[in-house]
Every structure is written in C-alpha cells, then in structure tokens.
C-alpha cells in the first residue's frame, strides 16, 4: 500500500517540465503560528481577545542577517476575529520583528537534500522616541464592541510603540505623516553594518529604519508624494472611496530589497496607485545616504499583485508576483512566480502623475514558477500557502562541488490557523541557473553583529538597576540559552 501511495508523486515527478528552469527545492522548515513569541510583556489579550504575543504569521518579510540568522516581520497583527468593523477589526498589536535561527543540515536519508530547523531566538518591539498619534476610541461601538483608546499600555517617555490599529493617525495630515502610530510592516532588510533594519509598510506607505538592538526608529525616508493618500480613514473601504490618488488601502509598499553594497533600497508597491492603470505598479529606489528616489513601472503578468523583491546584484532583482489562491483561501494555488527585472537603463517615471500599460516598463523574465516545483515535490495545490511573501538569500553552500546560493521563501499566514504553519521553503540556485536568464548574483555585504549580552552581564557591576530598567524599556525579548 505504501508503494501505491507513492505512485502519484513518482508519476508527477516523471512528467514535470519546469516552465522556467530547474531550480531545486532542497529543504522545508516550519514554525507553528499557534505558539507565543518571546514578548511576554505583550501577552495580555488584545481588543478581540487574542493574545498580544501570538506568534501568528511572520513571513510578510524575511531578511538575511548573516550566519544562520534571519529577521522576519509579522504584519499588523491578528484581525481575522470580528469585533469592531469600524477599525476593520484591527487591534493594538504592537508591531515587531522576530529573529530566527535557521539551521540547514545535509540529509543522508530519503526526502529532500537538507533539513531545515527554524528556531525563534528573539522578539523585538518597534517604537518611536517621539510621541505618535493614536486613536481616541471616539469611533465608538461597532459589531457589539466599543473602542477604547489606541494608546499602548506599554508606552513610556521616549518609548511610543507602533501598532496595527487602523485609527492610529492624525486626520489633519496625509498618510505620509511619520508621526502616525499605525504601522503595517510588510518587508524587512538588514543594513550593511548589521546594526539596523529597514521596514516598509502599507499604511503610509512608509520606509523606516529601526535600531536592531532596541527596536527604536532611527530614520524615516520620505517617499514620492504621489504614493500617499490625503483623506485617511480607519476603514480601508472608506479610504479607497475617499481618495482618487495614492496607494490603495492594504496594497502599499509590500516589497523591499537592499543592494549588495547596502547603499540603495528598492521598494515595490503591491498594486497600482489609485491614479494609475490596473496592473501597472511602481518600483521605487531610495538612496540611503541622500534619500533621493527614482520610480520605475512594472507590469503584472499572471499575478494579482507583487509581494516581495530581493536583490540579485546592484541592478537585477527577483520580484514575487502571485495571486491569493491556495491554503488559507480554500482553493488551489495557481500563480506564485518569481520574475527577474533589470533596472539598468530603465526609464525613470518619477515625472509621470499617472502610468499605464503604455508606459515604458521594466523588462522581466520568468525565473522560478513555484507551484509546479512544489507539486512535483509532493505538495497538493490546496496545501501551498496562498500568501508567498518573504524572500531572502541565505548563506551559500557547496553541492557536489558546485557553489549553490540558498533562496529562502516564506509565507504570511495572516495569524489564521486556516492558513497553516509558517513555512520556509529553501531553493538551491546555481550561477548556471541565473546565467540562463542573463543574471548573476552578488551576496550582500554584512558586518557581523555580536549578540546582545544576557541579563547576567547587563546586571553586573555599577549601575545594575539602571541597566536592568533600560533593557525592560527596550522590549527586546530573547530565548534563554
């Protein structure tokens, strides 16, 4: 009977013909979203009754930090439980990034070439040193629940936390206001010196830089004004109806890349702006030193939006274009594809108020079609995560004497048990694979950052009480070792 069960998989593998080329799946790892993260200070129930430190989905963004270390970002928190539609059921979930150790080990037995063991090692809360705007609760009662203040209880002087609640904004200013307390993180990258992370978001859209050791914001990058909306609302539908230009609600800067030299950020909008034609997106480059920006047009092929972008080198990038079908949607996954785009010689469209299918756009080539590769490796199309979002290149490995780049692909389960565990798919990519589409790979230059000292070291010597208090305020929670 066991042989009979294997027959469909063997037949599928025998007749599988890749639509791009043979990049190989070499490992899969998972973390349950039903467990808690390490932020015990946020463990209390949110407005919808869900624990504030539910691990949930953490693959909205994924970044390599050197060695076996990766940084992952959950989005704005659990909002699948209906409690108050006036704020789209969003809660005062404090935004954070998770630090994960990914141990990749050669597998001598049957199955994939490697085993992947992800371990959560730290949870870092995101804050501002200056006050932020929060909802007062004045929207009132909706769905049987009355709103309270949106100000986080953990706030203290010099530590004002970002949260996912949609009414945390100043209605007198545009969505570009960096003092808004609402944040919906969607992508993350590590700085060249390893001491900070860059996070892009959907509410603004924003691109912020946070200190990696404390989680405090240290810089904000002003994006082109045409990306922002003027009339803000706690309801996404109302915000869409109330604006004719700017990002569409819940479709902001979904992807973020950093060039290997650490000098340029490249942000990808998930969908068209209100004033742009459907299917025509903007990709924005940001010079980290000068903060100068440039814009490029990207045309969707088969997906309904872009979820991530990752650098191959200083001008070529992989773009994650997908639909919303698969596990979590109750349907079969169809389009989860990675395209290579090249910014070298591309037309800057910064001066265009609106763009469409006729606008000079980035050339793109299909590099990896994820669904058929996963199906060939035994996955049912209904079990492939609907939201494939995080992309990061990890450490290179040698396979059969061939240098192989490891490409990590993560999903966002939206804090929903229906969407399954957090999955991390690892693909082996060779220089020959890239050469077939005229691309090459340069690893990001990263400086090693020593782990923060433990409590014992922090509390030793003079100033013990002061240092202990400072660590508590920083809200960096680590796994005991």
Automatic annotation (TrEMBL):
Keywords: Signal
Domain Phytase-like: from-to ranges: 55-415
N-terminal signal peptide: 1-22
Matching Pfam families: Phytase-like
Entry keyword annotation includes Signal: yes
Record-given protein name: Esterase-like activity of phytase family protein
Biological source species: Rugamonas brunnea
